[in-house]
Amino acid sequence: AQSVTQPDIHITVSEGASLELRCNYSYGATPYLFWYVQSPGQGLQLLLKYFSGDTLVQGIKGFEAEFKRSQSSFNLRKPSVHWSDAAEYFCAVGGDNTDKLIFGTGTRLQVFP
Amino acid sequence: ETGVTQTPRHLVMGMTNKKSLKCEQHLGHNAMYWYKQSAKKPLELMFVYNFKEQTENNSVPSRFSPECPNSSHLFLHLHTLQPEDSALYLCASSRGGEPYEQYFGPGTRLTVT
């Protein structure tokens, strides 16, 4: 069965610092991987996705993620965090022959000035 | 602006009331989803519709009744709810049939008193 683990419940960084949010997945074949961001009281916004090809994918708002099959990971990175990046981040995985996504429990990012 | 709208944005209802949540997507998608998001819990998939047909009911209590009259509209009819049903209800849409990215609406914050 597919599953997603986001090991960090809460992360705090200073504005301007680099960021890496961790995501590990469990899936037998090549997964379809996504990162979403949710601001308080809002819906989820797609940051980026990986279906195949280049393992380093670029997304919106300066985010990128790298698919590492050997580590079953799809970590989200940003070189310099802005205060407006404070939000909750969700990793999700999908597989062939299904239109369902499995979401992780989320990582709450707090940014200090 | 994500192309998925939800109304109302906030709803307070008593346990004996009947109300409905509405979702509309303007993206030409074929699949629509209802999720429940409660504090400190993972995102819970409730229902999936593909081409107006329900393809997933994730053991949701019968006090939640979905309706999908066409591929652009999705409703969630609510009756005799419990206080533990208070949550953010999110609607999403996707192209369907494969694990394509889902686009989310802003959600309806439901409070059951």
Roughly what percent helix of chain A? under 10%
**Largest protein interface, residues of each chain:** A-B, 23 and 27 residues
Helix- and strand-based class of chain A? mainly beta
Mean pLDDT over the residues of chain B: 92
In this structure, how is the largest beta sheet of chain A organized? 6 strands, mixed
Terminal CA distance of chain A = 41 Å
**Basic shape of chain B:** globular
Shape of chain A: globular
The rounded Rg of chain A comes to 13 Å
- Can you count the beta strands of chain B? 11
| Overall helicity of chain B | under 10%
Radius of gyration of chain B: 13 Å
| Beta-strand content estimate of chain B | over 45%
The separation of the N and C termini of chain B measures 31 Å
Order of helices and strands of chain B: EEEEEEEEEEE
Portion of residues in beta strands of chain A equals over 45%
**Which residues of chain A sit in consecutive blocks of at least 5 with pLDDT less than 50?**
none
Report the major sheet of chain B: 7 strands, mixed
Count the DSSP helices of chain B. Answer: 0
- Derived from helix and strand composition plus strand pairing, the structural class of chain B reads mainly beta
Order of helices and strands of chain A: EEEEEEEEEEEE
What does this structure look like?
The complex is a heterodimer of chains A (113) and B (113). Chain A contains no helices and twelve strands. Chain A is an all-beta fold and 113 residues long. In chain A, the strands form three sheets. In chain A, strands 2, 5, 6, 10, 11 and 12 form a six-stranded mixed beta sheet that branches. Chain A is globular and about 45 Å long. The N and C termini of chain A lie far apart (41 Å). In chain B, 0% of the residues lie in helices and 57% in strands. Chain B has strands at residues 4-7, 10-13, 18-25, 31-37, 44-50, 53-57, 64-70, 73-79, 87-94, 103-104, 108-112. Classes of the chains: A mainly beta (113), B mainly beta (113).
